[in-house]
Amino acid sequence: MPHFLCRAGLPLLVAGLSAVVGSAAGAVPAPSASRQERWELTNGWIRVQWDAKSETFSATAGKVPFIRTGRLRKPGGAARLTAVESPLGRGQALEVGYPDGSHDRLALFPGVPFLCVQSRLVNRSSRALAYDRISLASISLGLSGAPSALRVLGYDGLTGWDRPRASYTFLAAAEPRTRTGIVAGWLSHDRASGIVRSSVSGGRIRLDAQSDYGNLRLRSGQRTDGEWFAIGHFDDCHSGLERYASTIARYYRIALPPLPSGYCSWYSRPHGGAADQRRVDELARFAHRHLARFGFEVVQVDDGWQVQGRDYTTHHPQGPFPRGMRPTASLVRSLGLRPGLWLIPFGWDAGRPQFRDHQDWFVRRKDGSPYRVKWAGTCLDLTHPDARAFLRDTVTRITRDWGFRYLKLDGLWAGMAAESLYPFPSYREDRLGEATFHDASKTSIEAYRSGLKLIRSAAGPGVYLLGCTVAQNPRTLGASFGRVDGMRIGPDIDANWSQIQESMEAATRLYFFHNRVWHNDPDCLLVRRPLTLDQARSWASWIALSGQSNIVSEWLPGLPEQRLDLIRRSMPNTGHTGRPIDLFERDRPQIWQLTAGHGPSRRDLVGLFNWSDATAARTGVDLRGLRLPDHGTDAYVGFEYWTNRFLRTFRGRLETQIPAGACRVISLRPASSHPQVISTSRHISQGLVDLVAEKWVPNENVLTGESGVVGADPYEIRIATPPGRTWRATAAEVIGTDRNARAIIYLADTGPDVRVRVSSPVNQTVIWRVRFRQESR
Question: Which of 89, 136, 320, 571 is the Cys-Cys partner for 295 at CB 3.0 to 4.6 Å?
Fold first, then answer.
């Protein structure tokens, strides 16, 4: 029987639902409830069996019985096959209906390797019902092997199989050596916040899918569809997590803009916070001269520009921008850069004069007082028409009048009137649903999402929206799906090695969302002292290899050249997403792989990191763990970026000694019978952002290619020749696409290594050719 609790005089339903695999091949019978004893559905990925007698289900993926038993929300339902429509497309479902008119759906959709589960709630009583949370699924996993070998990954970290967990949005359980396991998570967060729990029962892991509504109210006769939950089994849980994120993107029809790189003023030393008008102008001009040609785009002003701590309607006349914000945005735009601005759109100060007669614009506590949350301010009521109009006017002024085209939206949890949970990421009480909104029919999550939608509309096309920050309240993780372009997912940072590691660790756990659901922002790139040069290189390299957002927060005109060059070598973003290979082995993965291209043009980079601050370590990777394609050879060649050296032919395992805080970034290619490009100097990714094309012409013994070079930045092409020294480079030539800016090429054949250096006075694409002569051994 369902369990009822009472809150605020209304009965509160807490139901339990179990995950089921559903989808039928071929024609589906006309929907009709049936007491048929067994049902079976499949979609080519998953097969599910429903036993009406025990009211349980099981599921297999291929030959793996990954769901041993599952139970639905309540007993007494009658099953039927039916078609189902969702943003994922038209699928087929096993629908279990209950006497009260509600039902649970177990659906499969074309091209979706997950069992998708949803409930419909119906209120047939004569009074309103209030729902706080609903337990949608209870699943006993049926994985092979010893459960003790499994590691469980959630939003708040990595643990052993036997520790009870409650994670925001998703959980994955995998065997670290094989990476085989389960990925489970919420696809939608339209009205509820999705939680996935794990526990141990009978020596097996049990997963429970929980929807936290906080304050969902159904009038008599009203019905509503719940959120979609997904679960699947994968031979490689990396692929499963990535497919999960791609399915979310499909559900919300997410199309991301290019990821910009640039500057944030907040952590800069000196001239941090919002800086001031003169310093921002100086930095923008410096970036235009020295960094724009490397991919630098954004100059973002942070907290401190506004008239008062939680009032973003205008600037302070005696503050850091006495002429207002429009001149700064105009100057940045005139330099070909994108001006950005920080604000807390949902957190204000209800005591400000403009709100004296508008106290109803704010969310209320039960005692009638304004709802304030730590640091973010008084919560604007995003269900109040006048409050929404006020927010729209504010955003329109900032973007269309002042001209800012990049918004960093901080303190977002204020939009759902939930408490800050910073800095601890574990699931716990945050008073979701205790607040009183103007429109009581809207849940806290609905109000929040409607606020983000309003900002998008008010800002207009082409404005980049960066959400900030999941770390303050992780409910903003799922609740922001489909509403922002980027999301700050790590805690606050400083030029402090331990804080950088914490930020990296948080961003690693969510690596799979990047470039699929949004752009991950792990917080700013910092390269100044007291970070050692090795530590600064590691942070820049991790950002480049993970592919995540690269916003530097340094006083750029004052940086030493060697550290400024780290910024040049990490920009622009490659557009690809790196993988933490040892994600299920350690909290701070030491091995990252970045892959781009297919077939002969495929390029693989491996980053090996020593996150220790005191101890050198020998770190390595088994090449089989990289899941490299079959090239017909087990021999590889490489080039290490920071030590600037070729790695001659190796097999099986790649190992190297790494100093404390340092890293090694190695470009790998299968050994070839002819010369090939193994690296370039332009970027840490060694060719991914600059090497447009490469081709070996066998009848001419010529290696030719096309590269995007940066003006006044010497460009080196590193060419590996086959072992045995049978090839010698004899000549090189270059043709630039800019006929008025001649590019110069220089060949250095030191045998067996070949380096070709190109100089160009301007940014341009060059076509280069290197001729070789084959010699006898």
Answer: 571
Q: What is the pLDDT of residue 30?
A: 40
> So what's the pLDDT on residue 19?
31
Task: Give the CA-trace dihedral at 14, 20, 26, 30, to 10 degrees.
Answer: -30
Query: Beta strands 486-488 and 519-521: pairing type?
Result: parallel
Stretches in the chain below the pLDDT threshold 50? 1-33
Is the separation of the CB atoms in 720 and 639 below 8 Å?
A: yes
Q: Using CB atoms within 10 Å of the CB of residue 751, give its burial: 0 to 12 exposed, 13 to 18 middle, 19+ buried.
A: exposed
DSSP 652-686: SEEEEEE-TT-EEEEEEEE--SS-EEEEESSSTTS
Nearest to 38 by CA among 29, 48, 46: 48
Give the whole-angstrom CA distance, residue 573 versus residue 522. Answer: 14
Strand order in the sheet with 727-736: 691-697, 702-709, 764-774, 727-736
Mapped onto helix, strand or coil, the DSSP state of residue 324 is coil
* Cα 117 to Cα 110: distance, rounded to the nearest angstrom: 15
Tokens of 282: 């100086």
CB atoms within 10 A of CB 429: 8
Q: Give the Cα separation of 37 and 364 in Å (integer).
A: 52
**Contact status, residue 18 vs residue 71, Cβ threshold 8 Å:** yes
Question: Would you say 312 and 267 are in contact if contact means Cβ atoms under 8 Å apart?
Answer: no
How does strand 635-640 pair with strand 645-651? antiparallel
Is the distance from CB of 186 to CB of 227 less than 8 angstroms?
yes
In whole angstroms, what is the distance from residue 333 CA to residue 324 CA? 16
Q: Residue 498 is encoded by which pair of tokens?
A: 């331990």
Torsions phi, psi of 478, nearest 5? -70, -35
Cα distances (angstroms) measured from residue 98 to each of 39, 121, 716: 17, 10, 69
d(CA 370, CA 366): 9
HSE of 333, CA atoms in CB hemisphere, 13 A: 13
- Euclidean distance between CA atoms 270 and 278, whole angstroms: 13
pLDDT for residue 775: 81
Q: Classify each residue of 279-308 as buried b or exposed e, where b means 16 or more C-beta atoms within 10 Å of its C-beta.
A: bbbbbbebbbebbbebbbbbbbbbbbbbee
With residue 697 as reference, give the H or E element that holds it: strand 691-697
Upstream peptide bond of 530 is cis (omega within 30 degrees of 0):
yes
CA-nearest of 244, 269, 226, 70 to 133 is: 226
CA atoms within 13 A on the CB side of 199: 8
> What kind and span of H or E run contains 716?
strand 715-720
What Å distances lie between residue 272 and 303, 323, 330, 745, CA to CA?
A: 9, 19, 21, 42
Tell me the pTM.
0.94
Is residue 695 a contact partner of residue 743, using CB atoms and an 8 Å limit?
no
Amino acid identity, residue 102? S
User: Which residues fall within 8 angstroms of residue 150, CB to CB, at 6 or more apart?
Assistant: 143, 160, 161, 173, 174, 175, 181, 205
Output the six-digit token pair for 427.
């699931």
By the 10 Å C-beta count (0-12 exposed, 13-18 middle, 19+ buried), 615 is classed as: exposed
Give 695's strand partners: 704
Q: Under DSSP, is residue 625 helix (H, G, I), strand (E, B) or coil?
A: helix
